[in-house]
Amino acid sequence: MRILYIGGTGNLSRDCSLRALAEGHELWHLNRGTRPERAVEGARLLRADADDEDAVRAALGTLRFDAVVDFIAYNPAQVERDIRLFSGRTSQYVFISSASACRKPAVHHVITESTPLENPFWDYSRAKIACECVLENAWRETGFPVTVVRPSHTYGTGWIPTAWTSSDFTVAARMLAGREVPVHGDGQSLWTLTHARDFAAGLVGLLGNPAAVGESVLVTGDEVLSWEAIHRTLAAALGVEPRIVHVPSDFIAAVDPEMGQHFLGDKAWSAVFDCSKLKRLVPGFRTTVPFHAGLRESVDWFMADPARRTVNARVDAVIDLVLERWKRGMDAVLKE
């Protein structure tokens, strides 16, 4: 197949690129070409800013594709642009949405494609829902050949998934320094983590499948862990004993509303996924990278070069503020 990835060098799309090439597909990337260190050998580059519609149209020329996957569309205007650009140019358009779009507060901890889309807490999720609505209307009204893919918390080498951040070393640095790390709630809500290599197997398996057109599909792994276990697995990979403090999600949101969106709109709720549809469409799909092994790869990657161990100063400061106010409140209660 001839496949176009809009993006192609990110956390999800790089492993998806490697998978597509390994399966013998002709792969094209559409991006600005500003991350040569992340370029994938074998992928052909169409250099353009995806938000510049005229530049994209010029770069595309007369090319047609069996499948187009947009990894970087986050608002309705961007998918409306894609509809204009790729109508009649592809047999399948894949939008990477998010499982965080599924109803919050959760009514049931097992999520399927039929779980309603509603998230009053997180702007990101509401934007993804709006994108899905635009694409569903295009499918119904004009036959635009969309497949919606909903990943959950997906990570690759160079990412350390925690409740606070994933794309940097902030929480790991705190653990290595012996500093406390808040874990929301009692740490026992359930969470699904998927390695990007496993996500890639699911995504590429959907490409070119006519049964996937007009459908939404959850693409997540099978491994389910508590948030306590996730953070303790990280500490074990680092070779330290974690200093975990349990703090309610709504308290975190009260201290920092922006960070609170990530908890109340996503991580505070147990998230277990029924991927039966994916396994029907992509027979043999399964988790091949257990979390402890994938996390070990990521920790080794960070530890190999001190320059990679970046700390998000803002998140680190918010964590300190949350801990300081939580302890102040607890001390006041204990003194009563």
Percentage of residues in strands: 15-25%
The assigned structural class equals alpha/beta
Helix and strand sequence:
EHEEHEHEEHEEHEEHEEHEHHEHHH
- The level 1 CATH classification of the largest domain is Alpha Beta
Largest sheet: 7 strands, parallel
Query: What is the mean predicted local confidence, pLDDT?
Result: 95
The residue ranges in which pLDDT falls below 50 over 5 or more consecutive positions are none
Shape type: globular
The count of DSSP E runs of length 2 or more, i.e. the number of strands, is 14
CATH architecture of the largest domain: 3-Layer(aba) Sandwich
Q: How many distinct helices?
A: 12
Strand order of the largest sheet: 3-2-1-4-5-7-11
How far do the termini sit from each other?
69 Å
Number of domains: 2
The CATH homologous superfamily name of the largest domain equals NAD(P)-binding Rossmann-like Domain
Overview of the molecule:
This protein has a seven-stranded parallel β-sheet with strand order 3-2-1-4-5-7-11, with helices on both faces. It is globular, with a radius of gyration of 21 Å. It has two domains: 2-155 and 193-219, Rossmann fold, CATH 3.40.50.720; 170-190 and 222-273 and 287-335, UDP-galactose 4-epimerase, domain 1. It has twelve helices and 14 strands. Helix 3 (76-86) packs parallel to helix 4. Strand 1 (2-6), helix 1 and strand 2 (26-31) form a beta-alpha-beta unit. The protein is α/β, with parallel strands linked by helices and 336 residues long.
